[in-house]
Amino acid sequence: MDSKTVFELRNEAKDLSGIEKLHKLNNALNISRKLYLEDSSDEWIQKAFAWVLIDLCKYYIADKNLNQASVCFKELNTIDFQGYEDEIIENQKNFLRPKIDINYSEVQKAEDLSKSGNNKEALAIFKNLISQNRLTELHHESYGWVIYRYIKVEESNLSSVEVRTFLRDYMNLKNERPSMLHSMILNFALNYSKSHNDFKFYNFLLLWNPVNLRYEDLHDGYKDGKDIPSLISRICREFVNSNTEINIEEFLSKIDLSKEIVLDFFRETIFWNIFNAHKENKLSELWNLFEQYNNNYSKHGQSKWHSEILNLAERFMKENDEWRFLSFFKNWNPENLRTDDWKETKKEEHTYKPLAIKAIKKAFEVLKTQTSEQSLSWLIQPYEKAIKFFPEDEWLLREKALLHFKNNELELAIKIYKQLVLELADKHYVWQEFSDCIVSDNSLKIGMLSKSLSIERNEDFLGDIHLDLAKVLIDENLFENALIELETYKKHREIKGWKLSTIFGELQQKTSSIKQSLKDNRELYKNYIPFAENFAYADFNWTEVVLADKWKDDKGKERLTFTDGKSIEFAISKNRFEVLKQSELGQILKFKLHKQEIKKEVENRFTWLGKNIITEYKYIPLIAEKSEKQHWEILEDTFAIVDYINREKSIIHAITTDNKEVFFPQIKSELQIGDFIRAKIYTKKVKDESRTELRQIQKIDKSSVISKFQTQIALVDGVNEQKQLFHFVISSKLQGIVKYTETNLRPSEGDFIKLSFATKIGKDRKLRVKMLSIEPTEEVNPNLRKDIKGLLEVKFKNGNYPDYEFDVDDELEDSAFDENGKLIINNKPIPDFAFIGDYYVPKYLLEKHSITDDCRVNARAIYAGDKWKVTKIEKI
Fold it and tell me: Is the pTM of this model over 0.70?
């Protein structure tokens, strides 16, 4: 159905009367109303809808049913022509209005008076209509506007009772809602409530019904270059400032906005109230506002202003009031932390820590000073999230371990401390805290505390550790050792002028009868520290490495470089472990190593592609032991040939069996070019370059090592008798020459030879072959020589021809040369070259076989390093 159907029904109704006509028009009304609801912008639907209502108004006027006519007329006025007004329809409205509304002229007069400011006279007209029971619903909207204008102008002259009476009268009207008038009434009530405490605005709002808030009431406006806060935001602000108790869940359910947006209207107001209370130093009010906020709003979940209030708490609860933050944050509920709260913020040139990190760390600092029997899971949970966001922050991991310890979750704490001692093995406090987790193994606890004391040299930090160690030593009946710790503690405190702990007094009494014979506890530490280290690093396997180098850093401190000869290399101070102090080059030691992953940004080859992230690994030694293996034993053996000797610098250049170029000093003077050696090999990193190093170098016989070098079948592709050498090829990249002085072998072009060789990169960056041994062979490399059959096609050049050296066969009696030096056989010129398919045939072969025309041949072709050439021909 469409608007055309409606007009057809109207036409049919014209010829009818009574109930039949009414039935036909109601059908048309139902159709047009449905069409209008589906598409209120269609001009023809608007007209169809309007004309049906006009027809019904006329029907009910003729039937003297003015009430029903009024209903239709009222609906007629609701049609939104969207700026387009049909003149004929407007004339019909003006025609119908006085017929339907007998009070039209009086109402019109009242409206005009009200708009011109004569509110009392306008109100009097409506009161008269009401007293005579002549005010119809058609004019409730007009009466509502008169009430609004009157109370707005006369507010100061009206009593609270009078204002409430007028608002009651308005609420009893049946005007259109939502509407601008309805919103203006609410806005008046809101402003009125601010100065009249006896007016309960919240109760009025519920009666007014928040579902009637329009789009304009729910969103900020803009006028004269300024933002105008929305009505809903001002309502929420007033509820907060007036301490109105409301059913917030019910209120939120009636507002056509997201729950978070509406809640933030409340929360933003509270934020500024807290901010101003702090600014004005109203501390009692400040703490009360924080508490009330959590009680009323923390249960409603996360939002921007919920986080902003946490930010204020983190800033304002400090020094003597810092203790307040722990309970506030718990009640605020860390589960309400947003994704944005975990991000750093930047302002001007400064970068600030994420709010979430600041909050959990502040809570942790407060908790450190308190004893609590309550579960700390509420704080441990955001720490788990923090560690995922910031995995490189060891302090977060450490604080989480301490929380587990306080929560009596010792196994979880121990698991974390085993991670921490990988990165912070040289921090005394980590071992001290680790020892707190050990409750049933005194030997292990002594080891942990001994480790802590052995690491830190500043006695200012060690007082509590001395007392902890003394206590456990007394428990183990090691009274002399305990006395050493107590005396060390006492001596330093007296030097500093610090008070002695009450715990010190209690422990001293237990050792008062002990006669001291020990000077220090070094031997104790040495014996017990392995308990701690073996426990902490129990999950790690031993790795054998060799001491490859000793050197001094910029500060003159001796450092040692260790390697497994392959992927592992690390350098540490000679004093890092006791076992290193008497170490020698080549010595094998065992380490437990932590493999630390390091990600780096590097420039891309093409800058427009941005930077690449590469992963490197750093090996951190945890504990060390001697190995029973011989010096250098764990390194792989390698074999090499001396390729060159720099006599001036006494440096030998050698090539290994896997073609690595190595350099080492000429220590053994008997080494000469061409000698073979055996050595231990490892890779050493110098800056960003990897170098191959040799140790335990020994000269060996060629016969014992030659088989370890590469062996290949090569093809002789050229012989130069004049220069006394021949050329061989293994592949396009591997080829070289052999001088007659290097071998007794005298091969012909196309012969195969067996080569043992090494390769190196020449100064021109090309691969060079160093021949080690050569022998004839019956083996064939099919990639280098082929036997072919096909049509030989001769080719001629134009212009000058190159000279070829060849022997003229005695049988060619009729041969001669022309004036250009071109050979003539049997009165036919010899071609310059030929092809058998893609295979090139040189001129000397054509001359040798007296070939002057195309013919079929059997041939042999060899690969000459960059192309194929034919070396033998046989005519078919």
Answer: no
